Every structure is written in C-alpha cells, then in structure tokens.
Amino acid sequence: MHQWSSLNFSPSYIIEQVMRIQKKYEIVCTNIDMPNKKGNASHMRYDITFKFNDTFDDYIRSAT
Predict the structure, then answer these.
(1) Quick check: 30 and 17 in contact, CB under 8 A?
(2) What are the pLDDT digits (tens) for 2-31?
(3) 5: phi then psi, degrees, rounded to nearest 5
C-alpha cells in the first residue's frame, strides 16, 4: 500500500494520471477521495490510496 497526500494537482489531472497508470499497470483497486472544499484547486488537499498488484509494487520498489 502506497499513499500520497496533499498533492497540488487539479482533480482532472489526478484522475487522468490515475486512469493512465491504472490502464498500464492494471491496478487492482483505486480509491480517490476528493473532499468538496471551496477555494483554488491547487490549494485543495487530495488523499489518494492505491492498492497495487505485485507487478506495480515491484515497479515502485525498483524506481525508488
């Protein structure tokens, strides 16, 4: 399990990247929680948790 929080990206950018990664690495489960808050999107907090399959897990470990 890998988790990133407080990313400064717009919701559309995040969804686009999630879909791209999900298609390429066949992520088992993707959960995107984007709270409905007022204000500039770049200053909003997004908590994204990915549950990866073994292939993606190995990719993450080799890249870090």
Answers:
(1) no
(2) 555 555 666 677 777 777 776 665 544 444
(3) -135, 165
Contact 8, 42 (CB under 8 A): yes
Q: Environment class of residue 50 by beta-carbon count within 10 Å: exposed (0-12), middle (13-18) or buried (19+)?
A: buried
Q: Which residues contact 45 (CB under 8 A, 6 or more apart)?
A: 5, 6, 35, 37
Which tokens sit at 14? Answer: 């995040």
Query: Do the bridges between strand 2-5 and strand 29-33 make them parallel or antiparallel, or are there none, so unpaired?
Result: unpaired
Q: Please tell me whether the overall predicted TM-score, pTM, comes out greater than 0.70 for this model.
A: no
Query: How far is Cα 27 from Cα 2, in angstroms, rounded to an integer?
Result: 12
Characterize 33-44 residue by residue with b for buried, 16 or more Cβ atoms within 10 angstroms of its Cβ, and e for exposed: eeeeeeeeeeeb
